[in-house]
Design a protein that fits this description.
8-stranded parallel β-sheet, 12 strands, globular
Length: about 400
């Protein structure tokens, strides 16, 4: 179906009237879509990943309580039923034009991909699109807001707005500049779409989601950025003269830059949540910093920092929360080599590198008695047969070695 600018404008005008009415007739409840401070992005552009049921076992072993997926894969949503893990599902960019036309399109999508899985599967958010604004597709920028409004209105009709948050993650491309943090502003061509979107999210109590990657900043300018500043290691840091604040790591500076841009746009009360951050463990020769050592250092220090449940220099009372990218390497992703090497875990359930997690099998290929699939096949704690088998195997190995 051809979506014209006139169609979008007319539908958006009608939606504004309908949305204003619905807001008056029912109080808006803020949804807490994020438990704690640490989450992980579960991407699946790969042909070697474990089953979703296996992923649940892995996440529970790692005590990860929050994940984001980039679609609404039914196998994933079924597997996470009863897990207690909170999920933000993705409404892909390819659906936005259709969703913007009429609320019934959004209603149909929700009835197929969200409502049937509640409450057993803890779907706590819908990310409408991903990194739309700041890109080259202006038509997607035009349909983002009406699509988000239709999704929210449909959730309202289903009485799910108290359970499921509506949001939309952005890339750093929406900012004109971010150094020092206090100087950050939205790009002028982005602001025409961003401001009404922020107004809507402010009305429904949604946070601002930003994909913040010190790795990408360092990769693009290794001559002028201190690698230690990007990795949370000891360094002189930077001083923001306007706020008189000191930053000893780029991650917090990027978060505060988002707060500064929001404040200038008139949304100083909106919370910032990092929807993606991470570091590549391998890259092309021209991708500075993409090493396993740096990936381990960044992700280990980030996890320690998030577990402290502290704020940033500019927002010391607002606890920083972030989703790390990503759970696994995705071997089918296009682009430079780094795109396929952000994983915290290997497909067999072992850790890619040590940041404090324990994999379901050892990283050493010959040291585990049971494979990842065998462990998962016995369920979360394993059956009594598995326990007996492991004990017996231990006795046999001890006998053989004596």
């Amino acid at each position: 179906m051809l979506v014209t600018a006139k169609t979008i404008f007319c539908n958006l005008h009608l939606l504004d009237k309908k949305f204003s009415f619905s807001m008056q007739e029912k109080k808006v409840f803020k949804v807490e879509a994020f438990t704690g401070t640490y989450g992980v992005n579960y991407g699946k552009i790969a042909d070697n990943l474990p089953s979703p049921r296996s992923v649940v076992t892995l996440l529970r072993a790692a005590k990860v309580k929050n994940i984001r997926i980039y679609d609404a894969d039914h196998e994933v949503l079924k597997a996470f039923k009863g897990s207690g893990i909170e999920i933000v599902v993705g409404l892909g960019n390819e659906y936005l034009k259709d969703m913007s036309v009429a609320e019934d399109r959004a209603m149909n999508w929700l009835k197929e991909n969200v409502e049937p899985f509640l409450p057993g599967t803890r779907i706590r958010g819908i990310a409408v699109g991903n990194e739309i604004l700041g890109g080259t597709d202006l038509e997607l920028g035009e349909v983002l807001l009406p699509a988000a409004k239709n999704v929210y209105t449909a959730l309202h009709r289903l009485n799910l707005t108290h359970l499921v948050e509506v949001s939309s993650p952005h890339s750093e491309a929406v900012f004109m500049n971010s150094y020092p943090p206090s100087a950050c502003t939205f790009k002028e061509d982005v602001l025409q779409f961003m401001k009404p979107l922020l107004q809507f999210f402010s009305q429904i109590g949604s946070p601002f989601y930003i994909n913040a990657y010190p790795f990408l900043a360092y990769k693009n300018d290794p001559q002028h950025i201190d690698i230690n500043y990007a990795l949370f290691k000891d360094n002189p840091g930077i001083h923001d003269a306007k706020t008189n604040l000191h930053y000893d790591n780029m991650f917090e500076a990027q978060v505060d830059a988002a707060y500064a841009a929001l404040e200038k746009a008139g949304f100083d009360k909106m919370e910032v949540i990092v929807s993606e951050t991470g570091w590549a463990s391998h890259g092309d020769p021209d991708e500075a910093g993409a090493t396993l050592k740096n990936a381990r250092t960044y992700n280990r220090n980030l996890r320690k920092r998030l577990l402290k449940k502290k704020g940033t220099p500019y927002r010391p009372k607002t606890v920083v929360r972030a989703y790390v990218f990503a759970l696994f390497n995705e071997n089918l992703k296009p682009g430079p080599t780094s795109e396929r090497n952000f994983g915290l875990f290997k497909p067999d359930g072992s850790i890619a590198y040590d940041i404090g997690f324990t994999g379901l099998v050892s990283s050493a290929p010959t040291s585990s008695l049971l494979s990842f699939k065998e462990i998962v096949g016995q369920g979360w704690f394993g059956s009594s047969y598995t326990i007996v088998f492991m004990v017996c195997m231990g006795v046999v190995l001890q006998f053989l070695s004596s």
